[in-house]
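Whether sequence alone determines local backbone shape is best considered at the level of individual chains. The sequence in question and its structure tokens are set out directly beneath this paragraph.

***
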Amino acid sequence: MRSFIKITMLAAVMMGQQQTGYAQTDHAEALRNADSTHFSVNSKGGWQMYNSYVASAKRDSIRLELILQRNDDIKWEEWHQVGTIRTARFRPKAARKISARLQQAELEIEIRPDGGCYLRVGSGDLQQVNQVVIPFIVVFKK
């Protein structure tokens, strides 16, 4: 019998207009404050990382926590690489897909065996704002 993958996701999308002054817009400063030991953000793709945490949750599962920021100038319905899990022991043996309802959008995350982490909106839409900050916690089977 095929065992089920336990996936836990806590996610929220915090959106704010850039003019409020609360969104961090300096990519270099965001990276300086973020722990990139086990996760590297796709900065060339326009993503910023406020923080990351990657560790064993149990003997057979991994916990990944990210707080990412992105300017809302992409096609959210397409897959976008947000970053890579750098440490091989924290990568899944098979691709893992996680989804969650976030406000009016269904957010989908895929973590691949090469460590690539991809994100898209499967249905619905993110509000049209200058920047989107996406914090999430996922626990997935190796």
The chain has one helix and ten strands. Residues 1-24 have pLDDT under 50 and may be disordered.
